[in-house]
Specification:
The chain is an alpha/beta fold and 444 residues long. The chain is built from 15 helices and 14 strands. Helix content is 40%, strand content 13%.
Length: 444
């Protein structure tokens, strides 16, 4: 059951099929290029697309827009301290701004950065700083409770190969977005802390979905069965030297992020100075005072049991509806999205013709549904499964929207033999970010 009710509504409409087909062609078969007004159910991302609460809207009215020393900054700082355990923060306009601040400070030319799995902007920021991102996901059986864990032995092997001095940071992303939104156990975070100490590396947690991860820990890790989500949230982050946070996820806001640093004075000061250069002065960091206020409230709401249980259950509900119509998905479902195995859904389309991107296009053509490909198109040349991610914005859609998504998949399945692959027509120079703007066309 949803732990909220609607107090405002937005009209949405489904363009007719001819319009959708024309829109898809004009967008170069890349749904990032579609106008939002032409999308009926938008599952492209959960980043900044959710619905804020009445308490958040009320808090925005007291935004202190002072350039320096804003009271709104102090309220956000207090919320981060209370909820996440970090007393020193460097605000940023969003998560990738925070990544630029932290990884631009930590990573130098020739460095290697292991992560349970890098996401697109994280990977790009490591590369942009001269480093080499290395994915170290744990191998686990289907259905395992913590498929997002870091393979700490793979990190040790990397250190033996390249030298510990070339690994400035060990990163764990919770939940593991690129690995189907799967959670990370607290035990794994403890082991990651140990290997970071062995290498004299900074242990970083990408915490943008920390509350959802905490809920999975509460439900699946026996040690925390009697703990609250809020208690687990602080415990899992207590092992990190630093966190990078997109407030647009579990901050429950539409903009904003920050870097949190625990004890390293030098790291904090260097990050603070880089933040001033790229984001803005330390007490606003690219956000208005009202945005700082909204995030301060959102962080506290994110660890409320009723909210996060409702959030994760809605994702599972979409997964169940898709399975009922025969759609192959990664199980168990994650905390923010359902991941569809596009290669299994469209077996006739080879990897080099982007079965995931083809499926994304057909979902829009058939039902005005927008998802995102996380396979060969988004991560060229990498040995990853061909997935389509269906991200649920927080506190936004209801069951009838989810049913429409399932009906759309069923309609695509009925004519899957007619679906053709795609080829890239144009793409940006930085391959790590090509899925945001590249254009494609059907393979003849």
């Amino acid at each position: 059951m949803r732990a909220y009710k609607a107090k405002a509504v937005e009209r949405i409409s489904l363009p007719d099929r001819a319009e959708r087909e024309a829109n898809l062609r004009e967008a170069g078969y890349n749904v990032f290029n579609l106008d939002a007004a032409d999308v009926f159910v938008d599952l492209l991302t959960d980043s900044g697309t959710g619905t804020m609460s009445d308490e958040q809207w009320a808090a925005m009215m007291r935004g202190d827009e002072a350039y320096a020393g804003s009271e709104s900054f102090h309220r956000l700082q207090k919320a981060v301290s209370d909820v996440m355990g970090f007393e020193r923060i460097v605000p940023a306009h969003q998560g990738r701004g925070a990544e630029n601040v932290l990884y631009g400070t930590l990573v130098s030319e020739g460095d290697y950065v292991p992560n349970n799995t890098h996401f697109d902007t994280t990977r790009a920021h490591v590369v942009n700083s001269g480093g080499e991102p290395v994915d170290c996901p744990v191998e686990s059986e289907p259905g395992a409770p913590f498929q997002g864990n870091l393979d700490v032995d793979a990190v040790r092997d990397l250190a033996d190969e390249v030298g510990a001095e070339r690994i400035p940071a060990v990163v764990v992303t919770i939940t593991n977005n690129s690995m189907a939104g799967q959670p990370v156990s607290v035990e794994n975070l403890r082991r990651a802390r140990e290997v970071a100490d062995e290498l004299d590396a900074t242990f970083v947690v990408d915490a943008c979905r920390f509350a959802e991860n905490a809920y999975f820990v509460q439900q699946r890790e026996a040690e925390f069965a009697d703990a609250s989500v809020a208690e687990v949230a602080r415990e899992q982050l207590s092992y990190a030297d630093a966190v990078v946070m997109s407030g647009k996820k579990d901050g429950l806001v539409n903009v904003g992020g920050f870097v949190g640093v625990r004890e390293d004075d030098d790291l904090y000061e260097r990050a603070r100075q880089r933040g001033i250069l790229y984001e803005g002065f330390t007490t606003y960091g690219g956000m208005a005072g009202r945005d700082l206020e909204a995030m301060a409230v959102g962080l506290r709401e994110a660890v409320e049991q009723e909210y996060v249980a409702s959030r994760v259950e809605q994702v599972a509900e979409l997964g169940e509806l898709l399975q009922e119509v025969g759609v192959p998905i990664r199980t168990p479902t994650g905390g923010h999205a359902v991941y569809v195995d596009a290669a299994e859904f469209l077996p006739a389309i080879p990897r080099e013709q982007f079965p995931g991107q083809a499926l994304v296009g057909e979902l829009y053509r058939e039902g005005g549904v927008r998802g995102v490909e996380l396979g060969e198109f988004a991560f060229p040349g990498e040995d990853r499964p061909q997935l389509v991610r269906l991200c649920l914005p927080r506190r936004t859609y209801f069951r009838e929207h989810l049913e429409h998504v399932a009906e759309t998949f069923a309609a695509v399945a009925d004519r899957r033999e007619d679906v053709v692959g795609l080829e890239v027509v144009s793409e940006p120079e930085m391959a790590e970010l090509r899925h945001f703007s590249a254009e494609l066309r059907p393979v003849e």
